[in-house]
Each structure stands twice: as structure tokens, then as C-alpha cells.
TrEMBL record, chains A, B:
SMART domains reported for this sequence: ProRS-C_1 (SM00946)
GO MF, one annotated term: catalytic activity, acting on a protein
InterPro entries reported for this sequence: aa-tRNA-synt_IIb, aa-tRNA-synth_II, aa-tRNA-synth_II/BPL/LPL, Anticodon-bd, Anticodon-bd_dom_sf, Pro-tRNA-ligase_IIa, Pro-tRNA-ligase_IIa_arc-type, Pro-tRNA_ligase_II_C
The Aminoacyl-transfer RNA synthetases class-II family profile domain, residue ranges: 28-276
Keywords for the protein's UniProt record, in alphabetical order: Aminoacyl-tRNA synthetase, ATP-binding, Cytoplasm, Ligase, Nucleotide-binding, Protein biosynthesis
Full protein name: Proline--tRNA ligase
GO biological process: prolyl-tRNA aminoacylation
Length: 478, 478
């Protein structure tokens, strides 16, 4: 697969289209999630939701429309979001007195309500999550990765003090890491964002960052410690055990449908989508081959396998349409179905089927006596294999030997020449905004995060050569 | 409980507030669903969603913003909805070229997309559902029942012919009936809407109608046969087996968060909320009584019961806060928790607990040896009991002996005098719009539906006395 920029974009768009995951609409940047695209989100949602509930969170739902005055209460927040807001200005034939924004995120509405809900330390912590649609009217859009309307979850919690809020911030980042690695088979680097990349209104932002096959980064989840900023802006105070009024400390954390885009860009290949078994809408497809119509025993046997898999909770399809096997193979490969089973007259005679994993070249011969167990095992193996492959790819393209901007530029030129991806670079940073900006201007590499567990510690700033305060991942990013 | 109009409204608002189900916001008619309110919706959603999937439907997600021109394609549809639409007119600092409506329902956007997705009979039926927020900027709002933004599901299907589409319309109405009766313990009358009450753009609309404790009706779910109206408006054609271009026949069907309002108004009582066990966020509350703090064995025993219930998947809470038992009893009754277990020193000595069902006056003595089984049984019994009570109430207040508008007026006057609720009236209707309108103007009774299984058949029109074409339920409605 070509990883050159234009080629990769084209591949991404084509793959999505051929896998039938979404459609475009006449509303700028707003996409329709078709059933196979939406089901990926449903599986992500189920897994996240059960983790949130296990850790004591409950779901709620807040109004989508947010009064303009709410935004103005937190200075950084309005500065960060106002360029991207769509506004409702009229309703039911009348002009509204105050414009209402379509929520880009709900800190303000929730801040307003928490100030009514929280009275005493007995009310804390408040641990609430919301599944919702949100809007950011961005100039450049890319399916799943950056759209005007998207789906997400946003957690909003309030705590008695900084320690408790910071613990929550980290707990949720860890849940994100576990779900993205475990369910989506996408390895990530977790760490802290630099100030310039922080969420508008956060004291500290933490992220998990994933590497796409073109070497660019996707921020796959963020968790923010908001300190008392929103508490001050919205007057969210509580009475302590000692009868004093204190500001609560709040957090927020989110993941979105851009995770779907990441799955495609991490696992896909020349033949199309490759889906990790745990989120695949169809995990196994059964296809009769050879002159199967003359031999009803073939469909009978496939029906039998179908039922046996179904009973085990495996998402299986039997493709008995009139198309040729070759056509079917191609179609189900485009859709990224993890395991394909072929059964023809000769296989039946030999008491066997052919099994093909989507990400492997060779077909395997599997005995009909143990076909269900073999499929189950292959689904598990493939889930692990995809993760290990992505992990190896990440390691291979994580460069830790580039310590100056000249070395980085040389690396980029070499990569360009060889047709390699530039990957990510671990480098020192003095903490000066100007150095970060200069790296960005010269190389388009931005700071991804300051990893919690860097493979090594850097001692000099990649830009100015002064002492490094932080060891940072730099990369081009979506 | 007083069923007078103002008293009932006040009771409803108070009950919701005390049960902590929602909060109001500064955005007109937009409410925040608090965790206990939202969880009711989650349980409804789970049950509906699994029924939809069992019957071959898949979820998808469509853009929330709909171009103004889309609405204008179906004449009845724009007429019906335009008075209630909120509009986005600017985004990211610029005025939009075309206004975008916040969806009140998605037939138009989906019609546009189905015309791209459907090419041949092989693509049919298309069976898609969407869970989403929708907007109707209505003048009078009432929590859960009528709000500017609400949550719902909307199914949209396309079929080769009328027969198949009508089968779908009925299938979904039946699923609604089963879920509303089985899960929410609300008995309903199913039937066809009169033309004046049809969905804007439908050929036929069917509904299930539920009776609230003040005798008013709530339309609890609707299913529409749309014929080829949207196919014509959006050019949704398919190639038949015979190679001819034909219009598809479409359906749509929806239920919303107004079901939560119905649960409250059907089962609630003077002490507050009464929740059917199957949707209660907390099904069982365990409360230590007497001098329990001096006797750790009491909390130990309650912990044991807690774990045993949890293992069975029962949603249980242990209230070991410092409040008095009386305070706790009252609080959990307000929240409608189905079963309360009390355990004090004497109970422990006697190897028993006290069990109280939310809807019964008497407490029961239950042996500690079988307490989990007793609770499980009581949850089931209560679910059935609530349904039976509501069914008796519905039957009692369904009047079938009023055949003229004079008799209806007399009945209303009598009810008013006695402080009874007017209930519903089964009456004949000649089919003339003017008769329907006259009944409405004179009595505020509107046609609810033409029941599939009327308790009897009426032969004369309640208004004009001419031959009745239909036997209809008339009622005041939310
Ligand atoms: Zn520097
Ligand atoms: Zn008449």
C-alpha cells in the first residue's frame, strides 16, 4: 500500500466507500453513518459504557442548544470554540432573543447545572457521562476523523479536591487506553499535552495518541483536569465537612467516532478494510464454492456451522447469493470481515473447510469436526495478531535518535526520497512555546504528548539546544 | 390522589422533581435528563433495540441538520412541521446560503439518501432505525411529554410493495404494544388514526394510546405507512425483477422519551413515583432499622443480601446513610423503588426481614433463608400487578354507553360534579371531518384511534347521528 500523502487519502476515502460505511450529504461536512459504519460505533460504545458504569459513572443527557452567554463565562473556552460554532437564530417563525449554539462540548451547560445540583460534600463526587452528537464547523473535513457533526461521549465529573479530580482524570485515560488497545487493537502512547495543545479551558490535558499507516497521529482520546476554572465561571461551590464554601474541581474526558477512522487507517490494507474481530459487524462469512447448487449437502453443512456459531454469539453471515466465489471473496474482503470459510464438494468429501483470516495470505485447512473451535480460536488469535502488528509498526516508526531540527529535516528528506513514512520523533523540548512553533513551521511536526513512559529521556531541546524540560513525541497529525 | 386538572399537573411536576429525574434549563423547553431519568430511557432503549434487531433492523445515524429545500419536497410534511422548526442560519462566523433545520423527524434526509442507496429489488427491504435527538419548538411544554428537544427512535424502511410495507407497519406497532405493556406495564389500545390526526405525509398512521391517571390520553407510539409519497418526492425508485422502475413503499415508526412521562402518570401515587420493576434504576433498597449501628451483624447481613441480589443481576442499593429510617423510607418511595427491605435487631433475632412493595400498603415478613427468592418473586409479581391495576383502571374509565354528544356532555358534567375523571369514550363516527371538529370544539375530546379490537361496534355518529363508518376512541389528550 502506498503511504504517500495523496495516495493514502485516496485509499482511505475509497476504502470507506467500498466497505459501505458512510455516505456524504449536501450538508457541509455532515455524513450519514450507514449500518456497518454505525455498528462499529455501537461496539465501541458498549465496551466504553460498561467500563464507565463499572467505575461508578452514570449516563445523563443535557440540552444540545447552549445560550451564547454561557460560553462567555469561561474566557479560554469561548476563544477556543467560537470560531467553529453553528448558531440557531430563529425558531418557530420568530427571531430568538439570544443566539443558541449547537454544542461543541458541554462544559458550560453542565457547569450551569452542576452549580444547582451540588450543595455539599455529600453530593460529591458527581460522576456523569453523556452520549451525544456534537458540532464543530471546521474548514477541512475528513470522514470520521473531522466532520461538522460527530458522535461522542463526554464525561463530566466534579470532586472535592484536586487529588480526587486528578485521580479521575487518569482513571479515564487508562480506560481509554485499555479499550483502544484491547478492543480496537490500536497501540497508543499515553501522556500529557503541551500547553498549546490543551483543551480550551483545561488546566492539564492528557491524551492517548495512535499512529496511522501513513505515520500521522490521531489523538484517540483525551482526559482533562479542569481545576476550578469552570467552578469559578459557573459558581459550583460546595459546603465542606467543616462548613466552608469551596470550589469543586472538575474533569472532562471524551472519545468520538474518529476512533472508527483510526481503526481503518491502522489496520486497513490494499484489499480494503481489515477489522479487529471484536468490533467487526460480521466476524465470519461462510461461502459455498464449486458446483454447490447441485449439491444441497453443502448449504446444509454451512447452515449447520452458521447455527453453531450463532449460538456462541459469533456474528456470522452465510453468502448464498448468485455471485461467483471470486466476487464474494473480494466483496467481503473490502468489508474487512475477519474470517472467511469456504466449503465446496471436494472439501465436504474430505470432511474439511478452507479458512482464511483477512490479514493472512494463506488459507488453512480445517477439519469439519472442529470447525467452530477453529474459528473461535482464529478470531482470538487475529485480534492479538493485529495488535502485535500495529505495535511493531508503531515501534519501527518511532524514532528516538533525532536530537536536532537539522537531523529531523534530514530524516524527512531521506524518508521522502525512499518513499518511507516519516513516523514520529521522540525529542527534547525546553518548554518554550517559540521552539514548539518553530518545529511546527519548519516540519509540520506538532507535539503529540509528553509520554508517561518515554523509551528514553532527552536532555536537549530539539529546536534551541538548551536544556530539555520534557521528552516529547512530535508528529504530523490529523 | 386528586385527579383534577391543575392538581394533577402540579402533582406530576412535583413528583418528577422530588424523584430527581430532570432539571430545567434556561433554554426554552429544553430539559436535562438526570441519571435516574435517563436510566429509564436506557432500559426502554435496550428492550426496543433488541426487538428491532431480532426483526432484522439495523441502526444507522443521519445528519441532524436538514436543508430547507428538502422539507419543501413533500407538501404535507412541510405544512405539518414548518411551524415548529428551529433554524441554523450562521456557522463559523458566516451566514449560511441555505437555512438548516434541526430535524423534527428524518424522512426527508433519509428519503434523499435512500434514493442513492436503493437501485434494485435486491437492495430491498431496507430496514433501518435511528436513535437520536429531535426538535419541535412547541408553545406549551411539559417535562418528558412535550419538550423542544427530545430523544427518540425513528425507524425508516423501504419495501418493494404496499403489502410488504404494511406488514412492517403493523409489525412495529405490535412491538411497541408488547414493550409498552410488558416493560412499562402500561395497557394500550391499538388502532388507526383518523385522517386529521395522521403524521404529516403519511397515507395511514397507526398508534397505541395509553390512559393517564387524570383520564387523558398519551399517544405512546406511532407507526406510519407512507405509501409512495416520499418515494415520489425524493425519487426512490428500484429496478424490479422484470426490469421495470418502480417507486418503493416506505414506512416510519417512532417512540420517544414521552414514554417516561407516561410511566409516571400511569403508575405514580400520592407518595410519588411508582416504577415497574423492569425499568426501575434501583429495584430494591436495603435499609437497616433500629439501633443498627451498635449491631454490626445487621449491616453484614444486608451486605450479604446485597451481593446475592447483585449476582442475580438485580439493581440493588444499600442505604447506610445517617438519616432516620422514616426519612429514608420517604425518600426511596418518592423515587418509586419497587421493593424495600428493612432489617433491625429484632428481625435478625427472628431470622427475618420486613419487605414492602412500593404499591402495597402492608409489609410482609420474609424469612432470611429465602429472602433473595422472595424479592425476585415480588419483583415479578409487582410488574404483573401494576399492569393489571392499570388495565382495570383503563377498563373502568373506558365508556361505551355514550352515543350522542348530549350524552357525552351530560357525562362530562356528572364527572365534573362528582370529581371523577371523564375517561375515554367509544363512539361512532360518520367519517366527516366536521363532526370530529365539532366534538373537539364542544368537549375537547379528540379522536385517539379507530381500535383494531373495539369492545363493541357503534352504528351511529356521535355528532350527526348518521350511519357510523368507524368506531372510535375519543378522549382528551396530551
Ligand atoms: Zn527550546
Ligand atoms: Zn357525523
Amino acid at each position: 500500500m502506498s503511504q504517500k500523502r495523496e495516495d493514502f487519502s485516496k485509499w482511505y476515502i475509497d476504502t470507506i466507500q467500498k466497505a459501505d460505511l458512510l455516505d456524504y450529504t449536501p450538508v457541509r461536512g455532515c455524513i450519514a453513518f450507514k449500518p456497518d459504519g454505525y455498528e462499529l460505533w455501537e461496539h465501541i460504545k458498549e465496551e466504553m459504557d460498561s467500563r464507565f458504569k463499572e467505575t461508578g459513572h452514570r449516563n445523563a443527557y443535557f440540552p444540545m442548544l447552549i445560550p451564547e452567554t454561557f460560553f462567555q463565562k469561561e474566557k479560554d473556552h469561548i476563544e477556543g470554540f467560537s470560531p467553529e460554532l453553528p448558531w440557531v437564530t430563529e425558531a418557530a417563525g420568530e427571531k430568538l432573543e439570544e443566539r443558541l449554539a449547537l454544542r461543541p462540548t458541554s462544559e458550560t451547560m453542565i457547569g450551569h447545572l452542576y452549580s444547582k445540583w451540588i450543595k455539599s460534600y455529600r453530593d460529591l463526587p458527581v460522576l456523569i457521562n453523556q452520549w451525544a452528537n456534537v458540532f464543530r464547523w471546521e474548514k477541512k473535513t475528513l470522514p470520521f476523523i473531522r466532520t461538522s457533526e460527530f458522535l461522542w461521549q463526554e464525561g463530566h465529573t466534579a470532586h472535592v479536591d484536586e487529588e480526587d479530580a486528578r485521580k479521575e482524570t487518569m482513571q479515564m485515560l487508562n480506560i481509554y487506553k485499555e479499550v483502544v488497545e484491547g478492543l480496537l487493537a490500536i497501540p497508543v502512547y499515553d501522556g500529557e499535552k503541551t500547553p498549546s495543545e490543551r483543551f480550551a479551558g483545561a488546566v492539564d490535558t492528557y491524551s492517548i495518541e495512535a499512529m496511522m499507516k501513513d505515520g500521522k497521529a490521531v489523538q484517540a482520546g483525551t482526559s482533562h483536569y479542569l481545576g476550578t476554572k469552570f467552578a469559578e465561571a459557573f459558581d459550583i461551590k460546595y459546603l465542606t465537612r467543616e462548613n466552608k464554601h469551596e470550589n469543586v474541581h472538575t474533569t472532562s474526558w471524551g472519545t468520538s467516532t474518529r476512533l472508527i477512522g483510526s481503526v481503518i487507517m491502522v489496520h486497513g490494507d490494499e484489499q480494503g478494510l481489515v477489522l479487529p474481530p471484536r468490533i467487526a459487524p460480521t466476524q465470519v462469512v461462510l461461502i459455498p464454492v464449486g458446483p454447490w447448487k447441485k449439491n444441497p449437502a453443502i448449504i446444509d453443512k454451512l447452515d449447520e456451522i452458521f447455527v453453531a456459531l450463532k449460538v456462541k454469539g459469533i456474528r456470522v453471515r452465510l453468502d448464498d447469493s448468485d455471485q461467483s466465489p471470486g466476487y464474494k471473496f473480494n466483496e467481503w474482503e473490502l468489508k474487512g470481515v475477519p474470517v472467511r470459510i469456504e466449503l465446496g464438494p471436494r472439501d465436504l468429501e474430505g470432511n474439511q473447510v478452507m479458512m482464511k483470516a483477512r490479514d493472512e495470505r494463506e488459507k488453512l485447512v480445517v477439519s469439519l469436526d472442529t470447525v467452530v473451535e477453529s474459528i473461535e480460536k482464529e478470531l482470538n488469535t487475529m485480534q492479538t495478531r493485529l495488535f502485535e502488528k500495529a505495535k511493531a509498526f508503531l515501534a519501527e516508526n518511532s524514532h528516538t535518535h533525532l536530537d536536532t531540527i537539522d537531523q529531523l529535516n534530514q530524516h524527512l528528506a531521506d524518508a521522502e526520497k525512499k518513499g518511507h513514512i516519516p513516523g514520529w520523533v521522540l525529542a527534547g523540548w525546553c518548554g518554550d512555546d517559540a521552539c514548539e512553533t518553530n518545529v511546527k513551521d519548519k516540519t509540520k511536526f506538532t507535539t503529540r504528548n509528553i509520554p508517561f513512559n518515554p523509551p528514553q529521556t532527552k536532555h536537549t531541546c530539539i529546536n534551541c539546544g538548551n536544556e530539555a524540560k520534557h521528552t516529547v513525541w512530535f508528529a504530523r497529525a490529523y
